[in-house]
Amino acid sequence: MSQRVGNTSLAFSRMWHHVDARERVLGHLARSIAVTLMGKHKPLYDPAVDAGDYVVVTNASHIAVTGKKADQKLYRHHTMYPGGLKEIPFNTMLQKKPEEIIRRAVSGMLPKNKLRDRRLERLKIFPDDTNPYEANIVKRYGVSQAWS
What we know:
Blueprint: E1 16-20, H1 26-38, E2 54-58, H2 69-72, E3 74-78, E4 85-89, H3 90-96, H4 98-109, H5 116-121, E5 123-125, E6 139-141
Parallel strand pairs: 1-2, 1-6, 2-5
Antiparallel strand pairs: 3-4
Helix pairs in contact: 1-4, 3-4
């Protein structure tokens, strides 16, 4: 008798997860999101197959960091012009683009390969409580609930 599950469409179906980022630590939250986007929580995980799920993150503007990261962390990018290195402090980024903080943290925890952009497309981040994907969400993870 075989114990193999097989490549059924049910096993590879994508679920929608909702995460409330209020008062959640950035690094722990990003790791859990990356695991879900890659599909490592599924029994059929294969690094070469994109079988991960969708993740909807709300309250991104209320994310927490530990230690002195709120004062010391910088986000850098280059405009490709001479002298075009731009540095944005964490607190400024939190006010202007809080969804970019989570997106960059999750992007850094995903494998650097061709599947990375496709996985990041399944990550939906919103700065407040509202999101247009309420009808799709199957699993919810709040502040009090543990998420791997």
